[in-house]
Model the fold of this input.
Amino acid sequence: MKNFKNIYKRWLILSAVLAPSIVPISCTKVLEVENLAEVSQDNIWNDPQAIQILLNNIYRLAEPDNYSGSYPNAGRFRHLVGCITDEGRPSVTYLGTTNGINNGVSFTVDSSPFQLWSYNTIRQINDILKNIETSFILPSGSSQDKVDERNNLIGQAKFFRAYLYWRMVQIYGGVPIVDKVLDENSPELMAPRNTMEECFQFIKKDLEEASIFLPIKASMRGMITKGAALGLLSRVLINRASPLYNPTNNIQFWKDASIPAKQLIELGEYSLGTQADFGQWYFNKDSKETIWQIEFVLGKREHGFDAANHSWFQLQGDGVNICPTQELVDAFPMANGKLIGESGSGYNPNDPYINRDPRLYATVITNGDASFGGTPIYTYLSEGSEVSGNYKYNPNQLNGFYATGTGYYLKKGMDARLLVTKNYNYGRGSYSNWIEMRLAEIMLNYAESENEQGNTAIAYDILHQLRKRAGIASGNGNYGIPLGMSSLQMREYLQNERFIEFAFENKRYWDLRRWRLSEEVLSKATHCISIKKKNNTPPTSNGADYTFTVVTSSHDQSFPPIFLEKFYFLPLPKNELQLNPNLKQNPLW
Done:
């Protein structure tokens, strides 16, 4: 027993030492225990601060998109998930990071992306839950504050256990459910896979219990709340109802998916804000739209998103990681809400960036755009010696080294404040938060689940709210959305709205999978814009000074994209199959 306690003592100390740099929350309150040697070994499990330190380590281990394994690299891949969808393509600088996924080379049993086998972390969570239950016993008559404090610890643990199980189900399908600490000789270590429905029920139960135990308001930024638990349950259940997991279209699953989404919306804790708030969640760390965020703090915990994605002339070491595609740009409607191909939209292919949905300008940097940092950024093709060496121009044409590969640069999530200090470089300098979940996602989940039940009126209402916030003109009060759409037509509108609303928020890849549209969408070549300046015209943002030609991405010509049916559920890690012969590999692998 003494060794057992010492193990936890070392775990506590290690977590406390690492916490300021790795924990995704502001830990000043949590880490008020300055000398952990003062914490009695006998009291570890009834000291809420000590338990919270252990949970802080779980926040790090269970951080969204923190995939294990060397490929894809967790630190870089979060920035690049958009480049394995129709949202974006990498510049030459980053070709090798995504090519193997785009063209299917990496989808093998021996080398599969998204490897995540989280049972070591789940064991730690199970251990925390067991010891809270058996050792953190409140005396009769304890204050509600003490009860809430204990419940909050349980809620956090159950949230992350559910999250880790969900991520594995999303990648592999059914996995073994382990809800207790197993002895190293336990036969349950050789358990077979549970069914997907059993996994969904287990995850649902954990999140429902977590939503009861967790507080509505976070005591510190980044802490898991009731809203995060309901939001994750909404995300899980909208997947369960979708074609990939619900091939027979069981309507009850859509009804189930509506419940947590509606509960979260009616909680009244979150709101969309105004047009000016769109995309500012990364920098306004107390945004009322944010439900779950990963916090970064300058000088304590930084990342390299800006260094990886700045345009060519703003480089500080690296850059041009993600280049938006023409497919994404074309998906944004006009300022009147009509799609660019609709009659009466007013779209002009010879001046394609005027009078568009304001979300386009908050997401993508187009030719001549001066809104990011105050200096125009040009993406038209270089004219050779006439502008040789001028850092404002694309020096190597489309797909050039450190230059846009599509005719566009990324704006969403980029921090213009850093252009003043220029204190950013490889993997450091950025302190904008990662927004894992925000209200718009839950609203569109609710709209989709209700629409699939035939309640198009609710879907219309949600779209109106989102487009009003976006700054699209009301028009006849319908924000450019056709009246009288069927559920099938509304489904297409909702899918497009998710495409543009959540661009580069790591939602598109998983949405296409759950809709079973990946084979269709991700096996098509993407496109870019070839922009040429007319003779004797200055570099401006005026579309009349250029010619615009849509061309097939040279990236996709060199590496033809492919998504096969068997990629929907990836192969279980080979070493886990060798360790547990009762695990069965996914079909087609």
User: Anything to note?
Assistant: The beta strands are 88-89, 290-294, 323-324, 364-365, 409-410, 434-438, 527-533, 546-552. The radius of gyration is 25 Å.
